[in-house]
């Protein structure tokens, strides 16, 4: 006997598209709509269960209602020459009026009561122009809240602080070299002079270290501000 025609409306109908890069989890949304006057049980299955996480992967859609199913593709090494053979199937059936155990209902369901729809998977990498368009089209509430001027100022400040840190490193290196030279001179000139010279060297080294620590703190603070604004 032929299977009953699928009552659920799927969006998209035939293909789930996943857009890279695939170095992180990529999510596609499958919308299931129940246009009938009955509640409908559903299950989402895949030919590659280890590669996807589906939430929810089963449940009940009330009459005249819909459910959004998140299909999360796990990170993998993308090969543009390799076509995806992964497929999904949405299986459904009208929920019995007196249903108490959904798993039991699936086990006892007759083949002619089951409805299914199949979707293939497609992987694609966005072009550079697409990336620029997507970033520019994002609303300010979901993208970085920094305007161009403020962002440039912060980046310039970061570069300046980085140069300052490099300069302090060079100064600290020079101080260590001078310290070694003074120690050699002090050794030849005697103990009394050695004591006072050692104190002067120690003071210069402490000042250089304190300045460097301050520069690092300012740099980390600015980076923290940038990350905090981008997360808004």
TrEMBL record:
GO molecular function terms attached to this record: FFAT motif binding
Keywords annotated in UniProt: Acetylation, Coiled coil, Endoplasmic reticulum, Isopeptide bond, Membrane, Phosphoprotein, Transmembrane, Transmembrane helix, Ubl conjugation, Unfolded protein response
Compartment annotation: Endoplasmic reticulum membrane
Entry membrane topology: Single-pass type IV membrane protein
Similarity section: Belongs to the VAMP-associated protein (VAP) (TC 9.B.17) family.
Name of protein: Vesicle-associated membrane protein-associated protein B-like isoform X2
Function description: Endoplasmic reticulum (ER)-anchored protein that mediates the formation of contact sites between the ER and endosomes via interaction with FFAT motif-containing proteins such as STARD3 or WDR44. Interacts with STARD3 in a FFAT motif phosphorylation dependent manner. Via interaction with WDR44 participates in neosynthesized protein export. Participates in the endoplasmic reticulum unfolded protein response (UPR) by inducing ERN1/IRE1 activity. Involved in cellular calcium homeostasis regulation.
The keyword Signal belongs to this UniProt entry's keyword annotation: no
Name of the gene this protein is made from: LOC104943624
Transmembrane segments: 213-231
MSP domain mapped to chain residues: 7-124
GO biological process, one term: endoplasmic reticulum membrane organization
Main location as per UniProt: endoplasmic reticulum
Organism (species): Notothenia coriiceps
Region described as Disordered: 130-149, 176-203
One GO cellular component, as annotated: plasma membrane
PANTHER family cross-referenced by the UniProt entry: VESICLE-ASSOCIATED MEMBRANE PROTEIN-ASSOCIATED PROTEIN, VESICLE-ASSOCIATED MEMBRANE PROTEIN-ASSOCIATED PROTEIN B_C
Sequence ranges of Polar residues compositional bias: 193-203
Bias (Low complexity) ranges: 135-146
Presence of the UniProt keyword Transcription in the record: no
Pfam families associated with the record: Motile_Sperm
């Amino acid at each position: 006997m032929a299977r009953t025609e699928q009552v659920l409306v799927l969006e998209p109908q035939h293909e789930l598209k996943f857009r890279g890069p695939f170095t992180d989890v990529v999510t596609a949304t499958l919308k299931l709509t129940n246009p009938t006057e009955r509640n409908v049980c559903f299950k989402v299955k895949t030919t590659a269960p280890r590669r996807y996480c589906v939430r929810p992967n089963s449940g009940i859609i009330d009459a005249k209602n819909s459910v959004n199913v998140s299909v999360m593709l796990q990170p993998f090494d993308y090969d543009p020459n390799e076509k995806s053979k992964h497929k999904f199937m949405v299986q459904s059936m009208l929920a019995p009026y007196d249903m108490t155990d959904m798993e039991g209902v699936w086990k006892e369901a007759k083949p002619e009561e089951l409805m299914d729809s199949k979707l293939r998977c497609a992987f694609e990498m966005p072009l550079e122009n697409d990336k620029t368009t997507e970033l520019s089209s994002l609303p300010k509430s979901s993208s970085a809240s920094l305007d161009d001027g403020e962002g440039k100022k912060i980046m310039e400040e970061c570069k300046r602080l980085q140069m300052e840190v490099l300069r302090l490193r060079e100064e600290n290196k020079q101080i260590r070299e001078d310290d070694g030279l003074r120690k050699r001179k002090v050794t030849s000139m005697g103990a009394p002079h050695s004591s006072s010279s050692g104190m002067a060297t120690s003071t210069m080294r402490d000042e250089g270290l304190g300045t460097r620590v301050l520069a690092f703190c300012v740099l980390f603070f600015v980076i923290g501000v940038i990350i905090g604004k981008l997360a808004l």
